[in-house]
Design a protein that fits this description.
single chain, 173 residues, mainly alpha, two-stranded antiparallel sheet, 7 helices, globular
Amino acid sequence: MRTTHISSGVDWRATASSITNERASAILFDASSIVLRYGLVLLILWFGLFKFTPTEAQAIQPLVANSPALSWLYWLTDVRGASRLIGLAEIAIALSLAARPISARVSAAGSIGAIVMFLMTLSFLATTPGSWARVDGFLVPAGAGGFLIKDLLLLGAALWTAAEALSAAGESR
């Protein structure tokens, strides 16, 4: 007896590969979402808590003092008090970001707060003397600038978490 195979025109190997790739992509997306959001939370929380130490208060003093947007804090309070106020804002941002499983809207607000915070810290690159140096003909971050430049990547993470949380908040309506 002869068996005839009827071709359906479906490439089963390509279909299986596509399903596998979609599944791997979904797993990687979910994992990266968690790492990106909660890595951002950890860093912001860590830096916020550190603002309560005298070492960090002194370290940020030249940045805050030269910032047109934040120097007013020193009219309101002293170096340690200003650092604590900044730390409180950072802790609130981190906790709001972390609230994503409970409230996408609260997390979106935290993400927007992080965006503002990172734009503020990136502005220190323009307002803090000594943040840039010319090395072998290249303009490079120097001093505090070398530390601040990482905020460009963190700004990208905050933008992504804001977009994700706002999308989720819109879907939950």
